[in-house]
Specification:
- The complex is a heterodimer of chains A (about 1000) and B (about 90).
- Chain A is of the alpha+beta class.
- Chain A contains 24 helices and 49 strands.
- Chain A has six domains: about 160 residues, 2Fe-2S iron-sulphur cluster binding domain, sarcosine oxidase, alpha subunit, N-terminal domain (Ubiquitin-like (UB roll)); about 190 residues, FAD/NAD(P)-binding domain, CATH 3.50.50; about 120 residues, FAD/NAD(P)-binding domain, CATH 3.50.50; about 55 residues, Arc Repressor Mutant, subunit A (Orthogonal Bundle); about 190 residues, Probable tRNA modification gtpase trme, domain 1 (Gyrase A, domain 2, 2-Layer Sandwich); about 100 residues, Beta Barrel (Elongation Factor Tu (Ef-tu), domain 3), CATH 2.40.30.
- In chain A, strands 8, 9, 12, 13, 14, 15 and 28 form a seven-stranded mixed β-sheet that branches. In chain A, strands 40-41-42-39-33-43 form a six-stranded mixed β-sheet.
- The longest helix of chain A has 18 residues.
- Classes of the chains: A alpha+beta (about 1000), B mainly beta (about 90).
């Protein structure tokens, strides 16, 4: 690559004293501070730096901003790598390293280019017609070709490892959010700030100015950027104004909530100062919003209009004026409106030879005179019909065109190595659309503009309204800022500034032009692209119309028009206008697709912010956690809690540890950390009424000092929680819930107490974390607890099963529930949380074996005790699990009426049963489907599934709980449980209580 | 994201709230006297209004109180709130 020969010797907003070396596709380049990657590369010429999506045609830089469809690059490598960034929005830094995407093996020699030459074989809808349709019959072919097609269509590469960068999130509030820092946005921010509003001004560029950054505009007889500088000083001095540069407002949401992405450390590259996050995601709640989002220039299509060196006309102006780069010696500008004249004049001032082809027969006289006197060749009534060349432009042709774009005379050659095309302007109404604005077709500028959103507190100003003149943009901005401030309650009166701009005499209207030829099936002049990113041509749009995909939504999905990372910023309106021409409709009758956030892509890292790794979700630990961790505990997550699953000793397998823990509880004494169980303190004279209504069983008879098990159901009669509730005093109860459901149950009680029964006098308070709980279980449990220092009478007579006692243990106030989930004599000892570890250590010192959740599961399953969420799944009634005994016949309660619904009352519902594998060495797979006959031809009759399955050291073999259709009436039958891969295990249907059926051990 | 005026706390972000669906579904006083169809209507059926719709919301990450809110299911415009079983205090914000 020869040197930066296309850099102008003077001008631009670059710092020529700060040269920055960087590399692209392995080659070395030099640019300047103030450059983007795109402008620095263009200084070396408009060479190909990308391959197109479908045809793999060489592509170059096309735009100067967010609308860039072609120049997507992979920035940096390894874990920091980012795919598909727009070179036009990457600020250059020293050592930047980027490469092409979608080129294989390289951008200069791409094997997939074969797709272009074979393109008659790949029309719109090719994949569907060929692989999905009836032509080849089944989806078999698609399966065969999909991997190849996916690879061929790939865009960019995922990073090679976890993202090493840091991302931040910021919440902010303001009176007025101004989006866009061009003349309209700055004017709006000044007006709002002058009224004393709290203002946030967000602009996506490194410095505000918008269109003024091209440097060729004037305000009050001075360069317009002087006015911008003064405006920025004024805003900087205002007390309540925040100016966010490099910040893209990505989405607007209900009640004027906005998300904005600020580039912070990113512009320094991998060597960014460590204290800076790479990106910062702003969440802004604004009372009022002013959208000064500007407009995107749109091209018109002509043959080979994707050749590197064809650019948007205004992009040529910005590269020349802002970056002092013109990547050509002879420039052809094609236009149908006034805006290209400024580009032509700016280029001519820089000494570049310019031909300006205006499709209009009579451009404004003043403009025509100005360009002619600057030595520019002006061709009126002509449009560009084609460019020649493949990897760069080797000339172009112009010709008169008819209203429908067809060529009306013989094309004439024009010497050119750079082509700028302007087909008009599309207001950037994306954000307005997020808030529900309907795009309205505006004939004069031939564009869609947003309709009025002021009732929602959203105003638009500047080019987004279709305005063209600088004075108009400044006026609209001022008015929108003033009105927004007033609507936000800032009524201070201010004086309207009077500014004189260089707009000149009134211009002439645009001549709508969408595609020059290229639409007819027989046209062989070369592809005329409408959507560069998705390789959609004018011919593709015509094909879609012929095949009756005429709705704009069908057009999009059939041709892929407007998809991809740019979402059709330069393509959509042209595509739907062409569809209108094909079908005899105006563009607004065709309509637009809906814009959805984000305006430009947001990296996942920025959305995640700090919510990753250990901070992804809160972790809850019990007071005994450190002891567990130090004693071999393997943890499992139960909700947000870390619970010991089992305690592994040296040399022990997990299975051996579980067996040892189960045996310890059955034969001696074990302790389990049950602190995670939900505990809800219930106080008030009406607690018993509440319990009667939310639990299926009867609570009138529960005496102080006693506890009772209860099932909670929804109104559909299905179990949703269970637990023990104890009566501490006449009007004071404590309810326990399952670990995972603690918050849900409290919300459930509050829902009913507040919305349905506000007359009930009950306070419900979560006290889960106030207490630490150790469950002491086993035949030696009573001996162990009796040895604890305290004042409790532990004798069976004084403290029977299902009783509770308050007292002191180890000097701490203790509340003890004698309840059992293991089938052994068992005490749940609750002490204030900070005594938990001391209690635990005392019990361990007394000889108890700690056991984890898996041993607890085995123990309870041997007893046939259900776990809500394991044996139940929201379709299971108390009767289904054999707990009809816990359902009161006397009183009404939530869910009761549902038990007499025909489906719920059926005698052959799925019932909870036990399963014993015929081969006792087998442990049936949990979730395994139960069938009568595993060799039945599909569809196989499914009868239920295994809900819990373990190996039991007490039973010396596998056993399971299952929900089985008509199960209670099938005791003794043999059924089969399908395995995940293939085959089935035979098992016998038995009663779900496997151990100590008469419950004698509970009272031990 | 909606900006909801909790009758007890004032304006807060939607993320602090949970929506509890249609408001004013009264629990039948004597469920046993209802036909299966009437009971099923109470348990399972909700109106799916296109337009202004009265919902119940709870300020989960705030005061924990349930209240009613009228919300337009198409435009998301919302406003009028109400309280259950009493009178809300003067909310600020």
């Amino acid at each position: 690559m020869s040197g930066p020969q296309f850099r102008l010797s003077a001008g631009g907003r670059i710092d020529r004293a700060a040269a920055l070396g960087f590399s692209f596709n392995g080659e070395s380049f030099t640019g300047y501070a103030g450059d983007t990657l795109a402008s620095a590369l263009l200084a070396y010429g408009a060479f190909p730096l990308a391959r197109s999506f479908k045809y793999h045609r060489p592509r170059g830089i096309y735009a100067a901003g967010a609308e860039e469809p072609n120049a997507l690059v992979q920035l940096e490598s390894g874990a920091r790598s980012q795919p598909n960034l727009r070179a036009t929005q990457i600020e250059l830094y020293s050592g930047l390293n980027a490469s092409s995407v979608n080129a294989w093996p390289s951008v200069d020699f791409d094997l997939m280019r074969v797709n272009d030459w074979l393109s008659p074989l790949f029309p719109s809808g090719f994949y569907y017609k060929t692989f999905m349709g009836a032509g080849i019959g089944t989806g078999r072919w698609w399966k065969l070709f999909e991997p190849f097609i996916r690879r061929a269509a790939g865009f960019g590469r995922a990073p090679a490892g976890p993202d090493p960068d840091r991302y931040e999130r910021m919440n902010a509030h303001c009176d007025v959010l101004v989006v866009g820092g061009g003349p309209a946005g700055l004017s709006a921010a000044l007006a709002a700030a002058n009224r004393g509003s709290r203002v946030i001004l967000a602009d996506e560029q490194a410095e505000p100015g918008g269109d003024l950054l091209a440097g060729d505009r004037g305000i009050d007889g001075a360069p317009a950027m002087d006015w911008t500088a003064t405006a920025m000083e004024t805003l900087g001095a205002a007390p309540d104004v925040t100016v966010l540069t490099r910040t893209t407002v990505a989405g607007l949401y209900d009640d004027n909530f906005a998300t904005a992405l600020e580039s912070v450390g990113e512009r320094f590259g991998p060597d960014a100062p460590a204290h800076l996050p790479r990106l910062r995601l702003w969440r802004i709640r604004a009372r009022q919003i002013v959208l000064a989002t500007g407009a995107h220039e749109r091209p018109y299509a002509f043959a080979n209009n994707d050749t590197p060196g064809v650019m948007l006309g205004n992009a040529v102006r910005h590269y020349a004026g802002r970056y002092a780069v013109v990547p050509g010696r002879q420039v052809l500008l094609g236009t149908n409106n006034d805006s290209a004249y400024r580009t032509a004049l700016l280029l001519a001032q820089a000494g570049i030879a310019v031909t300006l082809a205006d499709a209009r027969e009579s451009p404004p006289a003043a403009l025509a005179e100005a360009v002619r006197s600057a030595g520019i060749v002006l061709e009126t009534g002509c449009a560009i019909t084609a460019v020649a060349g493949d990897r760069r432009i080797r000339g172009a042709k112009i010709a008169p065109v008819r209203a429908d774009g067809e060529i009306a005379g013989s094309p004439r050659p024009v010497d050119a190595d750079l082509v700028g095309v302007s087909g008009g302007w599309n207001p950037a109404l994306h954000l307005a659309s997020h808030r529900g604005a309907r795009p309205v077709w505006n004939e004069a500028p031939a564009c869609f503009v947003p309709d009025d959103l002021s009732a929602l507190g959203v105003r638009v100003a500047g080019a987004v309204t279709g305005a063209g003149a600088l004075a108009e943009c400044l006026e609209q901005g001022y008015a929108a800022g003033r009105d927004a401030a007033r609507a936000a309650g800032r009524t201070k009166r201010i004086r309207k500034p009077v500014l004189k701009t260089d707009d000149g005499a009134a211009g002439a209207p645009i001549r709508p032009l969408w595609a020059v030829a290229g639409r007819r099936p027989g046209d062989r002049r070369g592809k005329a692209f409408v959507d560069l990113q998705n390789d959609v041509t004018a011919k593709d749009v015509a094909l879609a119309a012929r095949e009756n995909y005429r709705s704009v939504e069908h057009l999009k999905r059939y041709t892929t028009l407007g998809m991809g990372t740019d979402q059709g910023k330069t393509a959509n309106v042209t595509g739907l206008a062409l569809m209108g021409m094909e079908t005899g409709r105006s563009p607004d009758a065709v309509g637009t697709t809906t814009f959805r956030p984000p305006y430009t892509p947001i990296p996942f890292g920025a959305l995640a912010g700090r919510d990753r790794g250990a901070l992804f979700d809160p972790v809850r630990e019990t007071p005994m956690f450190d002891w567990h961790a130090a004693n071999g505990a393997v943890f499992e997550d139960v909700g947000q809690w870390k619970r010991p699953y089992a305690y592994r000793r040296a040399g022990e397998s997990l299975e051996q540890a579980i067996d040892r823990e189960v045996s310890a509880v059955r034969n001696a004494v074990g302790i389990m950390d049950a602190s995670t169980l939900g505990k809800i303190d219930l106080k008030g004279p009406d607690v018993v009424t509440l319990l009667n209504r939310v639990y299926t069983n009867d609570w009138e008879t529960l005496k102080v000092g006693r506890a009772r098990y209860g099932l909670m159901c929804h109104e559909d009669g299905m179990i949703f929680d269970d637990g023990v509730t104890a009566r501490l005093a006449d009007d004071h109860y404590v309810m326990t819930t399952t670990t995972g459901n603690a918050a849900t149950v409290l919300n459930w009680l509050e829902l009913w107490l507040q919305t349905e029964w506000p007359d009930l006098r009950v306070f419900a308070t979560s006290v889960t974390e106030a207490w630490a709980t150790a469950t002491v279980a086993g035949p030696e449990a009573r001996k162990l607890v009796s040895d604890l220092d305290g004042d409790i009478d532990w004798s069976d007579e004084a403290f029977p099963h299902m009783a509770i006692r308050n007292g002191a243990i180890l000097g701490a106030p203790a509340r003890i529930f004698r309840v059992s989930f293991s089938g052994e004599a068992s005490y749940e000892i609750n002490v204030p949380a900070h005594y938990g570890l001391a209690l635990w250590q005392a019990l361990i010192g007394g000889g108890a074996t700690p056991y984890g959740t898996e041993a607890m599961h085995v123990l309870r399953a041997e007893k046939g005790f259900i776990i809500v969420g394991q044996e139940t799944d929201g379709t299971v009634t108390p009767q289904d699990v054999g707990m009809g005994w816990a359902v009161s016949k006397r009183k009404d309660f939530i869910g009761k009426r549902s038990y007499s619904r025909p489906d719920t009352a059926r005698p052959d519902r799925k019932h909870l049963v036990g399963l014993l594998p015929l081969d006792s060495g087998t442990v049936l797979p949990e979730g395994g489907q139960i069938v009568n006959d595993p060799s039945q031809e599909p569809p196989v009759t499914m009868l239920g599934h295994v809900t819990s399955s373990y190996r039991s050291p007490s039973l010396n073999g596998g056993f399971a709980l299952a929900l089985l259709k008509n199960g209670r009436n099938r005791t003794g039958d043999t059924v089969h449980v399908l395995k995940l891969d293939e085959g089935a295990d035979a098992a016998r249907v038995v009663d779900p209580v496997f151990y100590d059926r008469d419950g004698g051990r509970l009272r031990g | 994201m909606l900006l909801i005026r909790c009758p007890y706390c004032g304006l807060r972000d939607e993320s602090e709230f949970s929506c509890g669906g249609e408001a004013d579904i009264a629990r039948p006083l004597e469920p046993e006297k209802l036909s299966d169809a009437e009971w099923a209507d109470y348990v399972f059926m909700r109106t799916n209004t296109k337009g202004r719709f009265k919902e119940q919301w709870v300020h989960t990450h705030g005061c924990g109180r349930w209240f009613t809110l009228v919300r337009h299911t198409v435009s998301h415009e919302h406003g009028e709130t109400g309280v259950f079983g009493g009178v809300a205090p003067e909310a600020d914000g």
